[in-house]
Specification:
This protein has helices spanning about 70-90, 120-130, 150-155, 175-180, and strands at about 10-15, 15, 30-35, 45-50, 55, 60-65, 95-100, 105, 115-120, 140, 165-175, 185-190. The chain is of the alpha+beta class.
Amino acid sequence: ASMRSMPAGSAAEIMQFSAASTHKRPRPSKAWLSKPCDIVFFSLEWGATPNGQCLMFDTKFAIVLKDDLPVWQKLNVTAFLTSGIVAQFPDIIGEPYRDRAGNLYNPLSIQPVIVLSADQAALGAIHRRALERGIETSLYVEEMFSTGHDVANRAVFAEFAPEDAKVVGIALRADKKIVDKITKGARMHP
């Protein structure tokens, strides 16, 4: 959604999150929206604050998975790749959750995540484009499925170069337009 496509209504502040500051809390922009967020207008570029105000991100958080992986592997790879992005951008984590009974739960990402899928050739091209643009990514290669811990994962990962890596998943967070260019050829995960 773009600001132009957002509906008119009562005033609500839009907070725009900048990719320029990777380790500081995002700052709100001076942009204004004329209607509070609701489920109809929520998208991958918009979120909402606890009081219903809209948030607009100038970044995109995308994960691209190999399209023919079994479901359990897709879930496993998604979890690992997400942890890498969170480590790179700790400001993406919001406040803890609390239910009505007062139980406390871990904080989650403040930014929506788009999950895409692609075949092996498209994943290789996405990986190459990210490297060419100097975008740091989280990457998971097929051989990591045969290991059982981080040290072994890093050892098997180091055995491959970009031209021969069997990429099964890649995650990145950068300016929306850059992410769109890098992930060209991937499609929304079904």
